[in-house]
Amino acid sequence: MSGEPSSSGNICDGLDDVEDYTRVNEGEEKVSWDRFNRVSDLMQKGNIAFRENRYEEAISCYSRANSIKPGDPIILGNRSAAYIRISRFLKQRSASASEYRPLNGLDPTTHAELALKDAEKVVSYRSNSVKSYILKANALILLERYESARDAILSGLQVDPMSYPLQATLQNFDRTPATICRRHGKPERTDDFDCTLCLKLLYEPVTTPCGHSFCRSCLFQSMDRGNKCPLCRTVLFVSPRTCTISVTLNNIVQKNFPEEYAERKLEHDSVTYLGNDFLPLFVMDVVLPCQKFPLHIFEPRYRLMVRRMMEGNHRMGMVDYCDCSFLSISYLRCEPLPDGRFYLEIEGQRRFRIVRSWDQDGYRVAEVEWVQDIALERTNGREELQEMANNAAEFARLWLRRAKEAAQQDRRRLAELLNAEAMMPSSQDPERFSFWLCTLSDRRPQERLDLLRIRDTKERLSRGLIYLRAEEQGCRLQ
Ligand SMILES: [Zn+2]
Ligand SMILES: [Zn+2]
């Protein structure tokens, strides 16, 4: 028999050719040189026959190779492909052709069953090869087991979401009338699409180079404790920055299980996009608004928090060890390091008070109330404050100039001063300005805490000026 049958609607392509048998194979060490040569010869003959559409001859060669070296995925894969070709040919042969030249002993279903048997073995040996799923899907389509074929395609797409033959077949399936492939409207909800880490439907799946898929957040949460695939322990070199979501797999999950996916999204968003008055909390020293500082994040619970913050609204709250200084922080720069740690550069912004707080995956989240200095009611009181702030700004500029001159020999100090100068807020915002003024000199934690608690801008401005004068005098005394 020869002649290539034309492809019909539901045929999964991607079986254009058979695989060549090479020495570089799974389990090669088990085969002696002599056996390898015999298998290799048979495979070569079989492949030539396959390529010349002599499928029965090809099958006979592959079967002999299989008896010398059982369980080889290339041998079984090629034989499966040959069975598929025969089955397809027989199915598409018109009735009149059969009458004219009957083909005794050949029936398409038997061949498809044999193809499936081989394909299933190949899948079990090579679960991360797309080709094995293509074979399985083809055999199942020939057996008219469309729902299982669809599952095989979806499993293959988990391995390689970009596989064109699988994508095309799936699209074909979706266009085919419901009678054929979607008897129940939707594929059955098996746990094939569950993340093995959270045991829920995959949400924003990522597929690792070893072929396993997990929810993006689950994978990185697991990798906070070591850079290995949680399933097969392959060492992974992926980071949240370089790792992208498997778009196709995500679409498949979203399209087939819309309600469950929406639920998963809600769950994800509730820990990522906190409302305006909610902040994840980071426990550290007291920091002032307008103060910039670097932060190394290495603890797993904070890595998780920082990833969510980067995805969410870029803010966190800073509380000190006794839980009494509060400050909201925005990050300015965030560098994910290759080993999963983060280097953050952050800046203090607004003060808050905790209304209530709770544990979220190891770190704390709080509902907060924003705190500001007490607003001045009287018009002349406000004018007085503004004048005081303007004078303080004038003094600060002079102070900075003198300090820079004194620091000519001290590069680090000079850089600090230039940074502070660049961050100087307008004195038109006296509250913010008063905090900046206090960051010019080094303050002890207790002093910083007091500055945060003060709700009188004038008081803070005076303190800032006192600190600067004291520092200048200290310098002169040295
Ligand atoms: Zn998960
Ligand atoms: Zn893996």
From TrEMBL:
<dbReference type="InterPro" id="IPR013083">
    <property type="entry name" value="Znf_RING/FYVE/PHD"/>
</dbReference>
<dbReference type="InterPro" id="IPR001841">
    <property type="entry name" value="Znf_RING"/>
</dbReference>
<dbReference type="InterPro" id="IPR019734">
    <property type="entry name" value="TPR_rpt"/>
</dbReference>
<keyword id="KW-0802">TPR repeat</keyword>
<dbReference type="GO" id="GO:0061630">
    <property type="term" value="F:ubiquitin protein ligase activity"/>
</dbReference>
<dbReference type="GO" id="GO:0008270">
    <property type="term" value="F:zinc ion binding"/>
</dbReference>
<protein>
    <recommendedName>
        <fullName>RING-type domain-containing protein</fullName>
    </recommendedName>
</protein>
<dbReference type="Pfam" id="PF02190">
    <property type="entry name" value="LON_substr_bdg"/>
</dbReference>
<feature type="repeat" description="TPR">
    <location>
        <begin position="39"/>
        <end position="72"/>
    </location>
</feature>
<dbReference type="InterPro" id="IPR011990">
    <property type="entry name" value="TPR-like_helical_dom_sf"/>
</dbReference>
<dbReference type="InterPro" id="IPR015947">
    <property type="entry name" value="PUA-like_sf"/>
</dbReference>
<dbReference type="InterPro" id="IPR046336">
    <property type="entry name" value="Lon_prtase_N_sf"/>
</dbReference>
<keyword id="KW-0863">Zinc-finger</keyword>
<dbReference type="InterPro" id="IPR017907">
    <property type="entry name" value="Znf_RING_CS"/>
</dbReference>
<keyword id="KW-0479">Metal-binding</keyword>
<feature type="domain" description="RING-type">
    <location>
        <begin position="195"/>
        <end position="233"/>
    </location>
</feature>
<dbReference type="Pfam" id="PF13181">
    <property type="entry name" value="TPR_8"/>
</dbReference>
<keyword id="KW-0862">Zinc</keyword>
<dbReference type="InterPro" id="IPR003111">
    <property type="entry name" value="Lon_prtase_N"/>
</dbReference>
<dbReference type="GO" id="GO:0005737">
    <property type="term" value="C:cytoplasm"/>
</dbReference>
<dbReference type="Pfam" id="PF13923">
    <property type="entry name" value="zf-C3HC4_2"/>
</dbReference>
